[in-house]
Design a protein that fits this description.
Elements (H helix, E strand, L loop, with lengths): L1 H21 L2 E5 L2 E5 L5 E7 L1 E2 L7 E6 L2 E6 L4 E5 L1 E2 L2 E2 L7 E5 L2 E5 L5 E7 L1 E2 L6 E6 L2 E5 L2 E5 L2 E6 L4 E7 L1 E6 L4 E6 L2 E6 L2
Antiparallel strand pairs: 1-2, 2-3, 4-5, 5-6, 6-7, 7-10, 8-9, 10-11, 11-12, 13-14, 14-17, 15-16, 17-18, 19-20, 20-21
Length: 194
């Protein structure tokens, strides 16, 4: 009996949260963006320089103080997104990059931090692995940026470091063989992990 009541309560809460975010749409007023509910009631007053619509996951990306941030329907800032293609980073393999205190990590589609921000740069996940680096810098190169210097390693989707951050570069990763082509002491070699 209690289990049934608990399950029904949980479903009602989940559907309530989903319907709240689903019915919220952005609007513009005096050059700033906010959000209204289905009835046209302002739920988040205009305060953002740009705004994307709320996703099914209950979050939206907005520009605040020239940075793309992720907010929930209560207008709480959840994180700052890594800027990619003039917008928030794309979700790749269910994860996207975020920035915190000058470091980078990964978040899920609900803007919940999955892998803490502890690297100077992270590449998007590919086949379950991501290349990370420390000591590297993003240097402007025309309208793009280039990553220079540092040491590189490889992590999995749980954030576990599979290859230590000690290589000059990491080229290709072979997910099936659990190997990576790395550059060490100026030479390219294949390195395997467990």
């Amino acid at each position: 009996m209690y289990l049934r009541y608990f399950c029904i309560s949980l479903l009602l809460m989940a559907s309530s949260l989903f319907s709240q975010s689903k019915g919220i749409t952005s609007f513009e007023e005096n050059g700033l963006y906010g959000f209204k509910d289905k009835k046209g009631k302002v739920v988040i007053k205009p305060q953002y320089e740009q705004a994307m619509e709320f996703a099914k996951s209950g979050v939206a990306f907005v520009v605040s103080k020239n940075k793309w941030v992720c907010i929930n329907s209560k207008n709480q800032i959840l994180l700052e997104s890594f800027l990619y293609d003039n917008g928030p980073d794309y979700i790749v393999e269910s994860l996207a990059r975020f920035v915190e205190n000058g470091k980078m990590g990964f978040h899920d589609e609900r803007c919940q931090k999955v892998i803490e921000a502890q690297y100077d740069f992270v590449y998007p996940f590919e086949n379950g692995y991501a290349i990370v680096c420390n000591g590297c810098e993003l240097k402007p190169e025309g309208e793009h940026k280039r990553i220079l210097g540092g040491k590189y390693g490889v992590i999995n989707r749980k954030g576990k470091l599979l290859l230590p951050i000690e290589y000059e570069a990491i080229g290709s990763i072979d997910a099936k063989k659990k190997t990576a082509e790395v550059k060490q002491d100026g030479k390219s070699v294949a390195v395997k992990w467990k």
